[in-house]
Fold each of these.
Amino acid sequence: MMARVGQLARLLREQAGVDERLPTDLDRIAKWCSVVVADIPLDGFLGYYTSVGNRHGILLKEGQPRTQRRFTLAHELGHLSLPGHDGATPCADRDVLRPRVSRERERAANEFAAELLMPAFRFRSDIRDRDPSIELLAELADEQRYDVSLTAAGIRLAKLTHEPVAVVCSEAGRLKWKDWSRNFSYALPSSGGRVPGGSVAAAVLRGEDDSRVPERIDNHAWFDGREQALEVYESAINMHRLGRVLSVIWVVERD
Ligand SMILES: [Zn+2]
């Protein structure tokens, strides 16, 4: 199903005449879909897709930061476009802009949103030969590029990179969520577990400056990296507005 989700998002870009232009013009897509978008007070939910007859409406929780609103809107456009997603269901905070959510429909809508905002073929070429880092995420997330949150860019990086990379979000000393690339084969602490003291995330959580470029850390800081041939790097940023720290962990495997 997931491969088809990406195809449908690409088809929608084409049909709506957005093609390869970035950042993705969601207003144009919403207009092409004849969908009315309204920002209203919503409690506990970020977005809602509904239809009456052949009319479609997307309701967004008012006051979302711009990039988060963009992701939520793209997610709701996913519910509107994907087969079997009809029937209004509000989308909770925990299901939007999180990796590996358990509800299949929500996961599909997130995948659709990611492809709509960050088309894989472009994103892959943007990350090729670049060190996976917060610096790279900030460059890609920029208003003039993909115009997405650092979080969205980070989850996309974990999905599309060939490097062993993990993206970890921490809050109040604990892991909030984590995501990792298909070549990352190391066991990170569980969500809800303590952020390890030797990590850059822990230093940033203690109030030290962000570390936007990869910094060599102890092999054991995040996981049991016994192999000698490993080098582990981490970059991390304090997302003050959210009260969270985002880390990119990158393993260089020497052969
Ligand atoms: Zn949803």
Note: The pocket of zinc ion is lined by residues 75, 79, 91, 95, 106, 109 (CB under 6 Å).
Amino acid sequence: MADQIRVLIVDDIPETRDHLTKLLGFESDIEVVGSAASGGESLTMATSLQPDVVLMDINMPDMDGIAATEKLSAQVPGAAVVMMSVQGESDYLRRSMLAGAREFLVKPFSSDELTASIRQVHTREREKQSRMSALPVQASNAGGSAPAADDSSHDGQVIALFSPKGGVGRTTVAVNLAVAAATELGKTVVLMDGSFQFGDVGVLLNLNPKNKSIADLVPELEAGELESIDTFVINHSAGIRVLLAPPSPEMAELITPSGVKRVLDALRKTHDLVIVDCTSWFNETTLAILDSADVVLTMLSLEITSIKNMRLFLEVAEQLGYGQDKVKLVLNRADSSLGIRVSDVESSIGRKVDHTIVSDGRSVVYALNRGVPFFLSNREAQVSQDILRLAEAIAGDRAASPSEAARKPAQKKSMFSFR
Ligand SMILES: Nc1ncnc2c1ncn2[C@@H]1O[C@H](COP(=O)(O)OP(=O)(O)O)[C@@H](O)[C@H]1O
Ligand SMILES: [Mg+2]
């Protein structure tokens, strides 16, 4: 039957496999296509069987469920993993979700919980697929003022999130800033993962690259035309669009500086904001992104290394001719100082910090575990309000309100670009 949900069971205990197979045997819309006794076996079986859902035990002797899920996400991206664990610890949940699992069941669970989870992930997966393929350019931005896709006079802003040191919150801020600008300011927003080797945007938004990433644009970039860029931009339910990094690190080198510039030019033609999550090291592609950007939101934290690198970066930025209008400083976790004050930072780098964002591990980690941006799950938190203020500062006052923008498309260019 074509519309049965095809399930692969992975558990090292034979009785559990049999029990689960029997339970699911009662469901007419579910078919158990196989059962694997180890993480390693699950990879081979999933590759040949292409199941819709994989029920994965977390504790297995050879390759544990988390490692197997990580590999599965890359090798069989169409299979949604439901993790099963005897422990409900948040660390397990977090690691499973990071590895790409879509649901987490704590043993013992009832057969209702089991089948509901399987159906739910399957439905979500199918919806995601159809959203990706069916939606026209701006349709996912329900609250937004979609500029006409063919309005060639429209030139959105490119906002690069950069930091000369890793782990300071670029990806976290990029994702939530994008959601804030879309949901609160009514902008059409595309978020591009510019960390081509080890991009994290997909993890934060619970997206697995299913042949939808910037890598798929390489043939067109080489041919000198970018016709199907929209096909590879994912419409996310949070109201934003996403262009993911390549699914594997070695593909990053296919993305050239001139290619990335062309991609950004194409994206800014059809969106109010193009937000790019960059790497923390300089290479030619990162430089191409920073060059193309209207604003470089440069992130730092209250750590000596971050401050030292920032000083060096600001010198480079000056040599590159980036003015203070272009390079804006964002201090993340601004209230978490261990002896370093904001004023110390400012006197050390010789410049005022433009924006601050508070530290809120609870909201940030909760959101990460669920693959839902905290701006949506914890809208009232101070960290969300800080993000909104940042969004307003970079996009709110430079652009017309949604209704104005819709009325006066001819003025957009001057309003959006301030280079
Ligand atoms: N404002 C914040 N409050 C608490 N934790 C944060 C905040 N911003 C980022 N983090 C955490 O810091 C870590 C690094 O963030 P991430 O966005 O991945 O940084 P980067 O992209 O710069 O490497 C993550 O664990 C993230 O959850
Ligand atoms: Mg990152």
Note: The CA atoms of residues 217 and 229 lie 7 Å apart.
